[in-house]
What does this fold into?
Amino acid sequence: MQSEDYHISKIAELIKASKSDFYHDDLINYIITDSRKIIDAEKSLFFALKGRRDGHLFIHELLQKGVSNFVLSDAQFAQKQHPKANFLLVEDVLAALQLLAAGHRSQFNYPVIGITGSNGKTIVKEWLFQLLSPNYQIIRSPKSYNSQIGVPLSVWQMKPQHELGIFEAGISQIGEMLNLQSIIQPDIGILTHIGTAHDSGFLDVNQKITEKLLLFKNAKWFIHHEKDLNNFAETLPGKNIFSIGESQKNDLRILEIKQQNQFSEIKLRYKSREMTIKSRFSTLALIDDVLVCVATMLILNFEESVIKERVLNLSQVQMRLELKAGINNTTIIDDSYNSDINSLIIALDFLQQQNQHKKRTLILSDILQTGLPPDELYKQIAALLKTKNVDRLIGIGKDISAHKQLFSANDVFFDSTDDFLEHRERLQFSSETILLKGARDFAFERISQILSQKIHETVLEINLNALEANLNFYKSKLKPNTKIMAMVKASSYGSGSFEIANILQFNKVDYLAVAYADEGISLRNAGITMPIMVLNPGFNSFETIIAHQLEPEIYSFSVLDGFLKVLEEKQLFDYPIHLKIDTGMHRLGFELPEIDQLCSIIKNNKNFCIKTIFSHLVASEAVEHDDFTEKQIRDFRAVFTSVQRLVNYKIDAHIANTSAISRWPDAQLDMVRIGIGLYGFDAAIKKGLQTVMVLKTTIAQIKTLNKGETIGYGRAGVMPADGKIATVKIGYADGYWRKFGNGKAKMLVNGVAAFTIGNICMDMCMLNITGIDAQEGDEVIVFNEQISIQELAKIAETIPYDVLTHISARVKRVYYYE
Ligand SMILES: *Cc1c(COP(=O)(O)O)cnc(C)c1O
It folds into this structure.
């Protein structure tokens, strides 16, 4: 087996790059595709992928950060003035990355399990890890890294000390799987489930299955559920096929599934013997996932007693990292379900993005089963924490404590979670961001419960990956040099303030815009340093606007005069301002006849600098008003030209809001202002945006009522037949409109639609759950991708903006990142 590091010359050979002379034959340990995520610059190789943003554009920045090895496809960026750097030129950078990973994979002879399917990939991968890690040193994909880029990055982590690899592969269109197959080269293949997800990339289900099965073409074993491939007529891949199902011909035959108070009992037949497996999971989809795990263990020759015991102990898979409010003005990042180096790196990157507190603390348990000698492991961890700006480490566990000399003197160590809980008063958590990262055995959920603020059981969950995906969706629609101003007014349309702003700042949006100075000040206090425009600066706020380096929208002569006076008093020059032109909205802005007078003031003024000039479209989404929109754009261009002529610096022009980005691409100009699109809504876009927000509540009580009994105030609800109702913890004071009452709207109770019955109350409302299997305490979905906010808005005779911004502050926001 080779050493873990590769010389860059060897990599050049593997990826067939055109470069033979190396200034310095560097050793490479890290592959990076994101300029923001560097661990050890000297040992890193950057792949300039042409994704949403062209990686080539970051080469300059990376050189400055000390990276000196690059794979690129555009020779123009191979900077000759940097003779110290190695530039490997290839035709296709992604293909090169995949080739390198495939070459790396080929060195190892230990078994690799490859998983694909529409749902359940990550659960099966994590469960197999739980089931098999007592016997094997396992390397597995971090989180759900299963894409064309995620798979090579995961497989790159394979090391000689491992004994088993588990990788997931996800595809969304035809032609993708063979690449992943050549990288993973699975010995054991698992198909979890075939559903309807991502169907748009395929002609039909048959084509989708055929493509997915390519992963297993050289596998020794292929495990699947009979029902998923029932109508699939072609030959199945794999030297040995292992099928699961009810009919007799299956290798693992399901005889009976019995559900009993919180447990399910699954009676199986395998090679003419019967066995009964007990599991704490009872939904059928999860039982399917349990069974592919059982099949894998059978193939690996585990004894029945071991299988039974470990399956019973399987715990829930929590892949996401949650950001929530903690005690004493802290922010908690809860990633307390697993701990390995790769997921620690992801979590530390997320911690680093959070700027609301200066201080960053990491509570970290022993990292188990890495296969590395502890000395080496904790040396790596200590180096990692230095690069990621962690101010204080609290180490929990005997191993990490035994290596305390590797960490800073003010770091604290405890032998166990109990030990920590007993002494926690001493630690004085306050005004800091705390990342919790613990292996399952350390039960860090106990720490999370103590440090987090109690949550009123109605929560708005905000999916930060989806928000990023939506941002990237719009980036892909923009012309190359168009900038982005993200509208985060009204607490980012109800979703949150600094939490959202941190993500946008990290993603290098160019500007933020808030409605009032106060909102801008909160963002500054939370560590947001990027430019912020204030749409509606009050006369009393000019001083604080300047004190916080906020940039006012100047929309009238009186605002201009007022602000100029303050600038003159303070003897400030070139202060950034933004001019608002009214081209038809008739809300704020200079009107067209006023432009000449405006120009006379602008000319020769030294106190301010016009950063941008902008206007707002009133109906960019509506075909019937396209003539009007066109006129707005034309008038605006004329005003812009006449103002730009007066100054000798470049002013940025912007007029497009969300819907205009796709409908009026010529109006993207120098910048666009994205609002509601970030949060997943765009009247002009049918496909491609993701749902960012999910509102959830819980059942407080269930009642059995007879036909004709009445429900709620005014006796407005009447039981249509004998049945059951559930009282849930959300009412109009939370932003659940009174118009949703009396059967107008529905919620999802354990996945089944239940309509409101009776009037909505202030803090609660009732649902008719007749025929639905539910218990008190069960979670209820108020809106998500199935029950859309558009649908609710329609019922309330309003628009999504209105519904979103009415979700009250007492509904806690929980942010998560997968
Ligand atoms: C709110 C707002 C936007 C964003 O509009 P969306 O339709 O949400 O994209 C853009 N410009 C101005 C001036 C706004 O007030």
Q: What stands out?
A: The chain has a mean pLDDT of 92. The radius of gyration is 29 Å.
